Amino acid sequence: MTEPPSPVAARSERSLDELTASRLTLDDLVDRSALREMAGSFYELFQIQLMIYSEEGILLSAVAEQPELYAYLNEFSAPREALVELARRVRAIDPRPADVTEHCITGAVYQVFGLDYDNRQIGRLILGPFRSPERREVDPKLVELEPSLDPEQLKALFARLPLATTETVALIARHLKGALDLILFSGHKALLTTNMHLASVRDSFRELQEKNAKLQEAYNRLKELDRLKSNFLATVSHELRTPLTSIIGYSEMLSEGIAGEMNAEQREFVTTIHEKGEQLLELIMGLLDLSKLESGTMSLHKREVDVAELLDDVTSTLQPTARRKGVQLTSSVGAGLPTLWADPERLRQVLLNLSENAIKFTPEGGTVELSAAASFMDVDAGEGDADGMVLFTTKRPAMSLVVADTGIGISEHEKARVFDAFYQVDGSSTREAGGTGLGLSIVKRLVDAHDGRVEIQDNSPCGTRFVVTVPRRRASISG
Amino acid sequence: MQLDFAARELTVKLVYYGPALSGKTTNLQALHRASDADSSGRLMTLDTRDDRTLFFDLLPLTFKGSGGLAVRLKVFTVPGQVIHASTRRLVVQGADGVAFIADSQESEAQSNAESFMDLKGNLKAHGLMLRQMPLIIQFNKRDLPSVRSDEEIAQLAAKGREPVYLAVATRGEGVVESFIGLLHLTMSHLNAEHDLAGKFGLNIPGLLEEVNRKLGGRQPVAEVLAASVGGALDVLRGEEA
To answer: Domain residue spans in chain B?
Structure first.
């Protein structure tokens, strides 16, 4: 009776109560209109009126036709009142423990039967009025009650009432109850199935909700961890840079002889300290950039950029490096190239990183070529799939910046990973090429910040082409 | 259990639990056959063929009860198949007593154990402890070859808490005994919790006699209860005290 409270029990309690307690009502188990249809066909068959009441006293089904005798009697006030009184009395009859036979003022008979389901009475059947064979005539008291009634008409109308013995009517009722019982059983079964189904769905839903909540929690925790990591990276990079600036500054001053002349060996050592300090600073700056990009705190300062100028600047900066490596570095830009709306500093960094990489992985005698050309890029409406692509995509004027080398190339499965931070194709400690593995991931993020994209293509006959495509104009006036 | 004060009716829910194909439905069918028409309603089998999530049987039994409190028993089976987990959890909710129908075949020992752990878990999901649940165990299919021996079962049963019955449900053997055993435990438990005898004049021995008679039991109740091996000693002792 008193279940210990548990979350599961509380939620699905109602349906399970219905399932087991089963204080079922007739209304729960049958469809009223279907019941009326059945009662109608029963009336057609036996010509005896049938009313079905639920245990709660609701009339679920009745035949609308009134016997002519009763229609006639209703025209007179005294018989009408007597009939109303009779109807009230019959409705109130409780056919327990046995069926009840009730006589009407006309002498006709009503029989009331209990309707049971699952060993409980859940309704009543009222059959009548009908005349039993023992009574041939209208009850004479009727004329006493209302002298203005026409005895001849009464006689004629009474004779039109259906004739049946109470035994026959009881037999009819028994069969009717049998048929109804089957219907009630089916209704009960359907009700149970539905409730079970609902309860089961509710249960599954609850399980899913619990799982979702757990996943959400785990996701939030990870997000928080990620934020902490970025913060940590930014702070550490910043704190590392400060003492490093001093190391670089003082070693530079030493190597310039400001603190007195040094011998060749001393100068070599100090120069090494200075160079390594510069390398370390570069690495830390890279980390700082990356963390800024990841945390989304880096802002772009966009303006009109002359791409030819930008490419020239990059090639001249890297020319000494290329020459040392024996690699030919060139840039080519078609005439009449439009300007680009972008952050020139960041774009310069993109091209520097890509070109440095290209030089690094190109053997002596190879070439690295920078080029730029106007192009178009697809603007995806945001739908991930390709359905109706033609309707959702528009072409947007763009600029493609290409860094092509004749180096060792990148294999197909590496292409997807080279943009990951700290990833290096040759991950071994004895690798030939130096670097931190941050260059390309910074490139990727900077290009993303410009709403652009980077593609890696194979260069013919050997090497790699990095193609950076960024929108040419401001988003607001694109199209 | 549910108590209808106005109608003076007590509704008790009994659940037949166990692994797939151990004979739970066969038990209910045998009970249905054994009971007289007055006490037993139709055996309802819910079997939604397309959607395999719903599957259970329900047998309603009604007894007058000699103490002025009518007793309605709703006897359920749960689906044994592993995939019907949610139906099992729902059906077992609000159970007043559980009959665990085990398959006697040696090869089924593992399935029996798994189903039992499943019962334990599902009761726990409703905040119920198996230990506090009136429970009998029936070893069914005693007529098959390569079943665990009577001696083995008797030895194990003697160590356990639950009364254990042996049955061949297809022939109706041991079915009524198991049922009376379960009803005895359940009613004693409910009485201890709600003082049904004191407050409502429920006469448990009288009820058991009536149920036994209406299920066609030929032996007296005391003998039926004695047909179990092991267990239930604490309950019996509690009654004597």
So the answer is: 2-240
